[in-house]
Write a structure and sequence with these properties.
Strand order of the largest sheet: 1-7-6-5-4-2-3
Bound molecules: pyridoxal-5'-phosphate
Number of domains: 3
Protein name: histidinol-phosphate transaminase
Distance between the termini: 56 Å
Organism: Dactylellina haptotyla (strain CBS 200.50)
Shape: globular
GO molecular function: histidinol-phosphate transaminase activity; pyridoxal phosphate binding
Catalytic activity: L-histidinol phosphate + 2-oxoglutarate = 3-(imidazol-4-yl)-2-oxopropyl phosphate + L-glutamate
EC number: 2.6.1.9
CATH architecture of the largest domain: 3-Layer(aba) Sandwich
């Protein structure tokens, strides 16, 4: 499957294709606890952690992080964790099996965003394409790498915009600008909270005569319902990369663990260019716990609670007369909602001044921080509200009520 025109050998940067990755002795000999490790200039006396050395960071599950092992470099390949991530995303409907060679694991998916740009875009020559409103790090990573950003907005026109991608407009721009190497598509979108239409994505993946990569950012995919991830498609399309993270549904933002499923050849390039020990051993151990057995049950339970609260916020916020529509979708753990300048039945319309006022009052006088998104394309007057616990929803509703009384 896939369109014609994609050729990895001419799409990736020549210096990356030619890169000899850093090799260490532990590529050949794994630390099994029995061999004497005199290869990596570590400190055999252990970590500088008085009082903690013999303690465990965590005592849940069978795998523990013993602080006394922190003087050793972590596994550079993370194959055990990668296998669990493949098991997590393997779709029973899909005959092509995901395998550890399909994966890049990084310090958050933010590392994958940057690694892809470094892999495919020659600074000050190549470009990326994004579809605003979207996640801000695609642009930041491009700017850091001196790579231009071309924008083809989501469909934000009309009375009820779909906030979906516009494949034929994207195709037109790609035809006129051969320097575009990467397209970042966020699904569910941030800040739109909406899944991208799979048929539109297929249209792009089956486009002929384009030599570039489509990156699908699925950071919020677990909130979108069972079986929505398209990670398995990376073995159907030679130029698709699907990024995910443990920062959202798995509640592990603090350990910084993101990953990208990719066709084996692309995953190899990404792994060649990463720092050899990018995933720390505490991160790896905790991630392994999160994506196996009891960790998955915890994630599922927390997700249920978040989905319940999401439904509650959708139901209860419109009772306030200055709350407008929810824009986008409800496929993520946040909602994008309009703040009006007057009550709905008096002709109130979404308004940035009012949205800013609500945002600031909530933060400065009520102790609740949401995100002002009114300046994003198609998001006039909008706040993006993350869905929290039951108590947090109670507080949100109560404090929003107070703010609306005051303004
Ligand atoms: C769409 C999207 N992608 C990626 C990320 C980054 O995730 P990570 O914590 O894995 O770097 C975020 C974080 O908010 C996000 O909203």
């Amino acid at each position: 499957m896939g369109g014609t025109g994609f050729d990895l050998k001419s799409c990736a940067r020549p210096n990356i294709l030619a890169l000899q990755p850093y090799r260490c002795a532990r590529d050949d000999y794994k630390d099994d606890g029995k061999i004497t490790l005199l290869d990596a200039n570590e400190n055999a006396h252990g970590p500088s952690l008085i009082g903690l050395r013999d303690q465990f960071l965590d005592s849940i599950g069978s795998k523990l992080i013993k602080f006394s092992g922190l003087n050793r470099y972590p596994d550079p390949h993370q194959n055990e964790l990668k296998q669990l991530l493949c098991d997590l995303r393997q779709s029973p409907k899909h005959s092509n099996h995901l395998k550890p060679d399909n994966l890049f694991v990084g310090v958050g998916s933010d590392e994958a965003i940057d690694a892809l740009i470094r892999c495919f875009c020659v600074p000050s020559v190549d470009k990326i394409l994004i579809c605003p409103p979207t996640y801000g790090m695609y642009t930041v990573a491009s700017q850091i790498n001196d790579v231009e950003v071309v924008k083809v907005p989501l469909d934000v026109e009309g009375e009820s915009p779909s906030f979906d991608i516009r494949p034929s407009s994207i195709q037109e721009i790609l035809r006129s600008d051969p320097r575009i190497k990467l397209i970042y598509i966020c699904s569910p979108g941030n800040p739109t909270g909406k899944l991208v239409d799979q048929r539109k994505l297929k249209y792009l993946l089956e486009m002929n005569n384009w030599n570039g990569i489509i990156v699908l950012d699925e950071a919020y995919i677990d909130f979108a319902g069972e079986g929505q991830s398209l990670a398995c498609w990376v073995n159907d399309y030679p130029n698709l990369v699907v990024m995910q993270t443990l920062s959202k549904a798995f509640g592990m933002a603090g350990i910084r663990l993101g990953f990208a499923f990719a066709p084996v050849e692309i995953a190899r390039l990404l792994n060649n260019l990463k720092a050899p020990y990018n995933i720390s051993s505490p991160t790896s151990t905790l991630a392994t716990q999160a994506v196996s057995g009891p960790g998955l049950t915890v994630m599922s339970n927390h997700r249920e609670l978040i989905i319940e609260q999401r439904a509650r916020v959708i139901q209860e916020l419109p009772r306030f007369s200055k709350i407008g529509r929810f824009l986008g979708g409800s496929d993520a753990n946040f909602l994008l909602v309009e703040i009006l300048n007057a009550p709905k039945d008096s002709g109130g319309v979404p308004d940035n001044v009012s949205a800013r006022e609500v945002y600031t009052r909530l933060a400065e006088t009520k102790g609740i921080v949401v995100r002002y998104r009114g300046d994003e394309l198609g998001c006039k007057g909008c706040l993006r509200i993350t869905i929290g616990t039951d108590q947090e929803t109670n507080k949100l509703i109560r404090k929003l009520g107070e703010v609306f009384q005051e303004i």
